[in-house]
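TA notes, week 10

Several of you asked for a full example with nothing omitted. So below is the full record: C-alpha cells for the whole chain, then the designed sequence directly under it. When grading your own attempts, check the secondary structure regions first.
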C-alpha cells in the first residue's frame, strides 16, 4: 500500500470570525499528483498556507507522515512579472536558496546541485541570461528549479501556470509530471484550469463553499465544477 505523506483530519480554519472551511479530511499519498480546484475565495490559498505552516489550524489536525522532519515542502508561486532590469542570472537566482548570511558563496557540492537542477529543468543553456530578460515560462521554470534545489518530496504549485501561454503551461507541467513519475515527487497543483488539472493530475480535491469533494481526476465532472472554466 502506498504511504501517506500528509493527512488532514477534521481540519478547520477561520480568520477571526470568518470560517473558511471545517471538517476537511484528506489522505495525500506519496507520489500522488493532486489538483486542488475551486472558485475564488473558497480557501485554496489558506490551505496552502496551513501546509506551509504559515497558519495554524483552528480545528482538527494537519499531519506530515511519518513525521514533520521527513517531509520537505517546495513552493512555486503564481507568476509575477520580474522587472526587466532584475540583474541576477537564472543560475544565481536558482542558487539563492543556498545563500547563507555571511557566506554567500556556494561550495562545490552546491554548485553541482545548481547545475544538475538547471539541466533537469532545461535551463542550462540559458543559465547566464538575466532573469529579468527571460520569458514568462522561463521565469516560472527558474522558480520551479529554485523550489526543487533543496530536494523537496512535496511540491506545491500555487496557480503557478496562471497567465502563462499554453505552450509554457504545458512545458512546465510536463517537467513537473516527469519528476513526479521518475522520482515519486508528490505534487499539489492549485489551479482554476480544469482542463489542465484533468490532463496532469491523478486525483482532485474540489473545495466549494461549505463542502468539499475528492476522488480520482476522471470523476471531476463538469457538473461538479459548475461555472468554473472547464472548456
Ligand atoms: N488574512 C485574511 N484575513 C481575513 N480573511 C481572509 C484573509 N485571507 C483570506 N481571507 C478570506 O478567506 C477566504 C478564503 O481565501 P483564500 O485566499 O484562501 O481563497 P482562494 O480559494 O485561494 O481564492 P482565489 O482562488 O481567489 O485565490 C476568502 O473569503 C478571503 O477573503
Amino acid at each position: 500500500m502506498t504511504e501517506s505523506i500528509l493527512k488532514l483530519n477534521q481540519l478547520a480554519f477561520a480568520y477571526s470570525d470568518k470560517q473558511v472551511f471545517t471538517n476537511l479530511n484528506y489522505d495525500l499519498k506519496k507520489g500522488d499528483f493532486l489538483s486542488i480546484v475551486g472558485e475564488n475565495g473558497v480557501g485554496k490559498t489558506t490551505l496552502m498556507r496551513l501546509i506551509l505552516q504559515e497558519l495554524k489550524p483552528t480545528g482538527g489536525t494537519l499531519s506530515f507522515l511519518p513525521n514533520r522532519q521527513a517531509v520537505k515542502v517546495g513552493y512555486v508561486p503564481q507568476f509575477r512579472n520580474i522587472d526587466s532590469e532584475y540583474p541576477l542570472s537564472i543560475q544565481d537566482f536558482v542558487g539563492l536558496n543556498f545563500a547563507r548570511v555571511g557566506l554567500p558563496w556556494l561550495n562545490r557540492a552546491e554548485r553541482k546541485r545548481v547545475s544538475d537542477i538547471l539541466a533537469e529543468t532545461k535551463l542550462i543553456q540559458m543559465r547566464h541570461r538575466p532573469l529579468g530578460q527571460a520569458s514568462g515560462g522561463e521565469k516560472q521554470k527558474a522558480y520551479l528549479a529554485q523550489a526543487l534545489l533543496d530536494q523537496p518530496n512535496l511540491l506545491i504549485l500555487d496557480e503557478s501556470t496562471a497567465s502563462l501561454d499554453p505552450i509554457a503551461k504545458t512545458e512546465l507541467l510536463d517537467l513537473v509530471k516527469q519528476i513526479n513519475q521518475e522520482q515519486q515527487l508528490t505534487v499539489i497543483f492549485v489551479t482554476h484550469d480544469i482542463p489542465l488539472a484533468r490532463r496532469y493530475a491523478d486525483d482532485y480535491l474540489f473545495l466549494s463553499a461549505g463542502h468539499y469533494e475528492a476522488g480520482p481526476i476522471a470523476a471531476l465532472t463538469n457538473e461538479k465544477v459548475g461555472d468554473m472554466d472547464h472548456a
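The radius of gyration is 18 Å. Use that as a sanity check on your answer.
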